[in-house]
Amino acid sequence: MEKISTILPANRYENTPNLVLQVATGLCIFVCSITGCGINEQISIPNPTSFKIRPFSANVSKQKIYNNKDFNFCWDGDFIVDVDLIRSYRTIEEISCLCDNWNENNAQKFSSTLLERTRAIVETLKKQPEIFPTANESIQFEFEKNDGDYLEFELFEDGTVKKFFYSDTNGVTTEYITPDDVSEAVNKFYGF
Amino acid sequence: MDSKFDENESLLRAVYPASTHPNFWKGARISSAALKDKKGLSVTRTYDRTVGESVKLMTQYFKGAIVAITVQACNDVQAYIKYAPSNQNKYHSEIHGSETQVVLSSEQAFKLAKQATLEFQPEMPNANIQLS
Description:
The complex is a heterodimer.
Chain A: H1 17-28, E1 56-57, E2 65-68, E3 71-74, E4 80-81, H2 83-96, H3 112-122, E5 130-133, E6 138-144, E7 150-156, E8 161-167, E9 171-177, H4 182-190
Antiparallel strand pairs in A: 1-4, 2-3, 5-6, 6-7, 7-8, 8-9
Chain B: E1 10-15, E2 25-26, E3 29-30, E4 41-45, H1 51-58, E5 65-70, H2 71-76, E6 80-83, E7 92-96, H3 106-115, E8 117-120
Antiparallel strand pairs in B: 1-4, 1-5, 2-3, 4-7, 5-8, 6-7
C-alpha cells in the first residue's frame, strides 16, 4: 500500500513550523510500499538532477499551497511531489517484477534496458499515461480523451516505438517514431 | 467441430482481475494490451454452447475475469481465427492478426478491446455482467 506521509487534507491551509519540519522529514525519507512482488520494497527515485521534468519541483518559495486534484500540499520549502509520475514509477516497478511466463503462455520478463527506457520517457511527459505490459515484448502507454480520441505507444525491447492514434473524426494512424518524439506527440494530442 | 466459425459464436478470454498484477483494466474495460500476444491470443470458442455454459466450464480451469469477443467483431477487423484444439481444451482457438501475422495490429486490438464484454468476475461469481 502506497504511503505518502505528508499529504494534508484539502481544507487545511495553516502552515506551522512543526508541520514544516514534519513535511521536510517525510519528504526526505520518501518510502513507498508496494505489494506487487509480495514484499514491501522501496522504490528507488532516480536522482532528480538527471530529469528534464522532476518528480519533485524545486523553487516554490513563497508559495504556500500546491493543488493537485485531491491533494493540497502546504509547503514553504523546496519540493512538491508529482503524484501522477510517482504512480507511473510504481506501475513500472510492478511490471519489472513480472517473471518469465507471467501470462501463462511463455511471455518473457522485461529487460532492465526496456524498463529504464520506459522510466526515462515518462519523466519527459507533461501528462502521465496508463501503462500496461503486453505479451508482445512491449510496454504500452495509453492516453484517452473524453471525446474518445485515443493515443497509444508501444515501447519494444529492440528500442523501437510504435505510435497508434484513433479518432472517430480524424481516422487512424500507425507509425514508428523515436523515443524522443513521444513527448512531443503527447503534447500535440492534448494541445499543450 | 471444425475450423469454421459461425458469426454468432463468441470467443472467451480469461483476463487477470484488476486486483492482481499485471492489471489490464481501465475501469470496466480491458486495455488492448491484454489482447497482444506474439504467440497467438488464446481463446475458448463457444461453438454449440451458450456463453453462460462456456463461462461456467472455463471457471473450473481458469482464474480471473472472463471477457467475450464475438466472431462478428473479429470479422469486422479482419482478424483471423484459428481453431487449435488441445488435449486439455477441445474448444481452444487463437485470434491472429491475419493468416500470416500472429499478433493483432494496434487497430485490431484496440477495436476488439472496445467490443469485449465482461462475462464473469471472480469477485461476483453469480453475476453475468455485460458492459460495453
